[in-house]
Amino acid sequence: MYWNEEQQSGGSNISPMEFVERSLEEIRFWSRIMKEHSLFLRLGFRCEDTQLIAEANQFFHIFERIEQQSHAFTNQTDPMTIRRFNSEVQVAAANIYAFKRKVLGLILSCQLPGANNFPLLVDHISREANYFRKRLIELNEGKLVPLADAIIKENVFFLRIMADHAKFIGHLLDPSERKLVDIARNFSNDFDELLFQARDLDGMRPYSQTVPLLDQFLDQNRVSVVSLRDFKKTARDLIEECKIKSIIHPLLADHVYREADHFLTIIDMFDAHLTGTNV
Ligand SMILES: [Fe+2]
Ligand SMILES: [Fe+2]
């Protein structure tokens, strides 16, 4: 769990059942994401980058195995087994994070001229790996982040992720898709603005952490995330049907759609906890 319903006490622990359930949910979602990042990195390397291609393939297989393993476990699996699994996955996440940062360094020092991954994309996927890694550490520590802090922290993280996605889509669409490029640019501006608002709210902590302010914050973010998610879904379908011109891999289109959907699930869970409704 990211949050603690008795936010004032701050001392309650996650139950063993919640721990197993939450760990498996996170690993199932993020291991697939990490596996796909390995594929995107590989596709962006040049043919001569054989060493980097081999490393990316290795990560693909590591996360594929982790994903399969996470589906083999159930909510009844012994918490100690899951604890060990979390630690193993955390090491894999730390390794792929280091690999992505290394690639970013190579791109920014112009050592991979002509490679096809934007520096911001590589930075973005490294942030996602680091988020995954930190989530696993938090889970194993059994700490519950107070609800009000979790709401702001998670939104700051995911709003930036969404703003990046809009930028990637805008840049990977063919420039002749003028209407779609325009829509993507508007989403990028919208999410940049929401991100600044979130950071403002963060700066005003703890006074900004009132139920009405946080509730409005979630509602406002939700509206934009729903429309971005729907736009990504449409783009994904159009790409799959070969109806638009772009250099977006269909799996990348689906990938960013799933991440938006994941953010929405988090917003809804926060909202339910904040207003006391059960999910
Ligand atoms: Fe991703
Ligand atoms: Fe992403």
Please, could you describe this protein's structure?
This protein has 279 residues and is mainly α. The protein has eight helices and no strands. It has helices spanning 16-44, 50-72, 79-108, 119-141, 147-172, 178-203, 211-240, 250-274. It is globular and about 50 Å long. Bound molecules: fe (ii) ion (2 copies). One fe (ii) ion binds at residues 124, 128, 161, 165, 256, 259. Pfam families: DUF2935. This is DUF2935 domain-containing protein.
Keywords:
binds fe (ii) ion; mainly alpha; Ferritin
Taking Cα atoms only, what radius of gyration do you get, to the nearest Å? 19 Å
Query: Per DSSP, what share of the residues sits in E-state strands of 2 or more residues?
Result: under 5%
**What is the CATH class of the largest domain?**
Mainly Alpha
- Mean of pLDDT: 94
Counting DSSP E segments of at least 2 residues, the number of strands comes to: 0
Total number of distinct structural domains:
2
Alpha plus pi helix count: 8
> Architecture of the largest domain, according to CATH?
Up-down Bundle
Name the helix and strand elements from N-terminus to C-terminus, one letter apiece: HHHHHHHH
Main sheet record = none
Distinct small molecules bound, one entry per kind: fe (ii) ion
Specify the overall morphology: globular
Helix content percent band: over 70%
The CATH superfamily title of the largest domain: Protein of unknown function DUF2935
Return the structural class.
mainly alpha
Pfam family, one: DUF2935
InterPro entries: CotB-like (IPR021328)
Organism: Sporosarcina koreensis
Protein name: DUF2935 domain-containing protein
